[in-house]
Design brief:
Length: about 325
């Protein structure tokens, strides 16, 4: 064991690290899957707040490059501490590069373009299409994640909850160009491809190996964008507040989130994991209520409950239909 429980049992990050290191391949219960998906949401949702801390001082490509590069160094340091090397297999690096492209680089660029011409609420709704795209792709390419009535109901409830959450924005009219909407939908499709591709080609590696490789590839892909389109010298003048935002993005939204994500991949299908996309606005809403004094309405809570119900149904925590084994019995 890398870290002793007696020294870090109260540190959430350390607990997740221990959990990842001590992975033993045992079957994960539906309740634990739901808990980890909610934990993944909790790690990714504050990203919007962390970005606000740094966006006035640093441009987007530089923020992402710093985020993935520092996270790569942290995970690489863990691998070095464990005296574990990254694989030399060319196919492993090919798959890691594909993951970096579809999970990081392309969605980021597409959403950056989309949000120049569409509202953030519409972008969130388009991002919420990811579970539907993932379910279709998983049905075609992942035999263990076929599209069944249970998942259709769960995804439908999640989509309905997401739409209800943004009902006030929809009622006022959401504006956006056709190209912007297409870019947002394409970004959501990229995330769906990454979920299915990861399940099919990237699982089975020791803990920390796959996320480290993916982030390393992401760093190498993002560096040219930073140097070509932005001024990296701004990094030297960042305030402590901005560095706090960068480290929050690294430690929570990248390092810890990737550890949880790849652990989930070993135990459940991509469709279940993709339901995280529906929860991002919920997480942002709760954080805004807790830290920014924003209003929390009963309608928003009801919509959030609907999304949670959909997540539980997709993960079979609430079985609606009998399984093949139950039908035979």
């Amino acid at each position: 064991m890398l870290l002793g429980r007696s020294k870090c049992c109260c540190d959430p990050l350390a607990i997740v690290l221990i959990w990842g290191i001590s992975y033993n391949g045992k079957l994960m219960s539906p309740a634990k899957r739901v808990f980890l998906i909610l934990a993944l949401t909790a790690m990714w949702s504050p990203s919007f707040l962390f970005i606000k801390l740094v966006v006035d001082e640093l441009q987007p490509f530089s923020i992402v490059t710093l985020r993935v590069s520092i996270a790569t160094l942290i995970l690489g340091g863990i691998l070095a501490f464990k005296k574990q090397a990254l694989p030399k297999d060319p196919w492993f690096w090919f798959h890691s590069a594909i993951m970096a492209l579809f999970a990081s680089v392309m969605p980021f660029v597409l959403f950056c373009y989309a949000e120049q011409t569409i509202e953030s609420a519409l972008a969130a709704i388009l991002n919420g299409c990811s579970p539907m795209f993932t379910a279709i792709l998983a049905h075609l390419f992942i035999p263990s994640d076929r599209l069944k009535p249970q998942k259709v109901v769960g995804i439908g409830l999640g989509a309905g909850g997401l739409t209800a959450l943004f009902a006030p924005n929809i009622a006022q009219g959401l504006s956006g160009s056709t190209l912007g909407i297409m870019a947002g939908a394409a970004a959501a499709f990229c995330y769906a491809v990454s979920h299915v591709y990861a399940k099919k080609y990237v699982t089975g590696q020791p803990p920390f190996v796959s996320p480290t490789a993916q982030l390393l590839c992401s760093s190498l892909m993002m560096l040219p964008f930073m140097f070509m389109f932005e001024d990296p010298s701004q990094i030297a003048n960042l305030s402590l507040t901005a560095w706090g935002g960068i480290m929050g993005l690294c430690l929570l939204g990248t390092v810890t989130a990737f550890i949880i994500y790849y652990k989930l991949l070993e135990h459940c299908g991509p469709t279940a994991i993709s339901m995280v996309a529906c929860f991002f606005p919920v997480g942002g809403m709760l954080l805004g209520f807790a830290f920014l004094g924003e209003t929390l309405s009963w309608a928003a809570l009801g919509a959030s409950s609907l999304i949670l119900l959909g997540l539980m149904i997709v993960n079979e925590l609430i079985p609606l239909f009998p399984t093949p084994a139950q039908e035979k019995a």
